[in-house]
Amino acid sequence: MAQQHLESSEAYDTDAVLGAHLRGRATDFLRALRQHRESGAAGDTADAARALRRAARRISGTLHTFRPLLDAEWSDALRPELAWLSGTLAHEHAYGDRLARLAEALHRLTTSTVAPPAQRAEHGAPAAPPGRETLALGAAKAAALLDRQLTLARTRAHSTALQALGSSRFHAVADSVAVLASEVPLSGVDAPLHRFAAEAEARLAEAVTALGGRPPYSQYDSGSDTPWHHVRLLLRLHRYALEVVPGPPADAVRLSSAAHALNAHRDAAEAAAAASQAARTPRIAPPTAYALGVLHADQRHQVEAAREAFLDAWRREPVSTP
């Protein structure tokens, strides 16, 4: 772990390092905002929106981890606004990715020579699969249903994002970030940066321990996703803290692999939820419901695989390069 390396950072000038980092992320935000405005006429704003989200997350994460070193009133006011902006901009992209993921999974399930994962009946007992012909028959209608639902959700999210970027609330956030790009409101507290970065690492390690190790196979237990989503958030905060106070380079690969696994976990869990929601559409044909059930089971398998991949990455010993 990075704690010993963090403690060697005590000689860092807190104002210079933390201030420089926040000014840099604020500059990234303003650059992305300018790119978004310039590309708006062409309608190709996806890259700029991603850059805005990325900068907003990093500023918010830094404000959270190093809060005692910053003006509390200012920090506590800006953090939720950055979270609102990042979340609002994320929805459109997430719906598009979810639709592509589910369409690919349906194609894979209907063309694979391997038997599809079994559904479960209403009360949790395994249901006998009707067969591949039923799956093939229902897959096309399931794909069309998902396309309608998720495209509509994506369109609404796009409209919401456009409204948000034109709102007085967003302009207030942009003004605050513009001030941050030139002046960071520090609290004057005299404390080493590594202490707060180490606390972020400790919170992450505690949350991973609370997962209880490698869980029993539980592909249908969507209620168990919440602590894994929490670990994903804490891992993000830990990695953002390491951008301020770098840890051992050899640990970066392990943390990157762990983050990739938790992102895959999030994507699969949300895709499974979308399939489940589509299956509750009134008056859908039995083959369509069956295909959606198989799709849900497949994504829950992916959830379980992502959990195992995360635990494998987390327990992996960092390898130093001579």
TrEMBL record:
Pfam families: CHAD. It comes from the Bacteria. Gene3D superfamilies: CHAD domain. Residues 15-319 form the CHAD domain. This is CHAD domain-containing protein. It comes from Streptomyces xanthii. The lineage of its organism: Bacteria, Bacillati, Actinomycetota, Actinomycetes, Kitasatosporales.
